[in-house]
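Protocol step 6 of 9: fold each sequence in the batch and record its structure tokens directly after the sequence line. For illustration, a two-sequence batch is reproduced in full.

Sequence one:
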Amino acid sequence: MVNRKSYKIIISIAGMFFLTSCSKEKQLESNSSFRFENLTDSYDSNTATFSRRYADDTIRIKVLLNQEEKKQILLLFSQNNFQNFPSEIDCSSWGRNPKIYDELILNNHAVKYIHNVDQGLFCLKGKKFNHISTLIYEILMHKPEVKKLEMSDISYE
């Protein structure tokens, strides 16, 4: 017969195993790289290259993220279980234009997000995608090097 102390130890170990195995968040390595792309702007963390497209040109500049910014972005990828996203998330409404195409790549996992100007109310993975891409975009838009660039002349019709 198992005594009470042994029973508590077994329950504690089983509980820790259960909590560890059920964790949905996959921790990312600090050397993970990501790419962000929308209609006019893109960023590659591996090369620290920001690109802005114009009707007749593309400008590329170096934009370095500090450790805290990169950590914040990678944490958001992890918290939103980006590695479990399908390769395409289509939240667009049929017959509604324009269709907007955005893309995020984490390490080698690429996800294309298709949506309209107004987000679908019931598109959870799209909201998670948008949460990650919005953080990346906001961090990049506050960089002095990016602020110096003219806005793109490309837009959806």
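Sequence two, same batch, same settings:
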Amino acid sequence: MNEERGSKERITKERVTKERKQPLLASFDVETDGSNPLSNSLLSIGFTFHDFETKQVIQTFYCNFQGWEGKQQDPDTMKFWEKFPEQYNLLMVDRKKYKDGFKELSDLFHILSIKYRLIFIAGPSCFDWMFFKSYYEHSIFENKFPIGYACRCLSTLLSFVPKSIRINMFSQHNAGQLHYALDDALNQGNIALDVIDFLHIDPDTL
């Protein structure tokens, strides 16, 4: 009886080990023409996917969008973009419809999810997740990857790190607000890896 029970426990543990997917940090950033996804447009999104063990970026994604018909630009946000004309002009090239851009992103999620469990993170996550989640879910296409409801907040994690160490982390990665979604996603992802290590957080618990 004990041998049979032990055999079943070993089989169960082996099955769990095989089914457990490696965590993958999906750092992302968005650029918009306002602060409300109900009335303003998502202009671009950038993703960098970081391996927790190697600290390497294994994949990236970037897309500019055409904007949603009927939505308006927020005057204050456009005044902000007037200060960064070069960055704003980069958002106006190679723009795609939301359903086409997000279909490409969804397909990438499906491929990565064969091996990995995606852990979304942004900073601050509330704003970026609000726009990403809203526009992704409202885009209609087949075989959409389920992104779920959770996004980890880099700003919250950073609040547990002493200021002097935070400054060093940002300096080490030359991190600032570049206002280009792919570059910002990369910087956020690198800093997030440092913070997670500093706080001794097991990626499997994220």
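Proceed to step 7 once all outputs are recorded. Observation for sequence two: Confidence is low (pLDDT under 50) at residues 11-18.
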